[in-house]
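Quick check before the chapter quiz. The format below is the same one you will see on the exam, so make sure you can read both the input and the output lines.
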Amino acid sequence: MKNLKLKSARAALDMSQQQLAEKVGVSRQTISAIEKGDYNPTINLCISICKVLNKTLDDLFWYF
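Here is the expected output.
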């Protein structure tokens, strides 16, 4: 499942995948794979992404 919430939150801050990747310590390809739904990140990576984007886990990674 694509993570459009992550992509939207990143875009709202005018942040590239590369910039987000550098801030959380992963490759740009990892961020791309998370957004495409091809990679299931660890909880620690999810938390790091949330902190950088100023969002909660529910905001970015909770699906109904």
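If your answer matched, good. Residues 17 and 29 are 8 Å apart (CA to CA).
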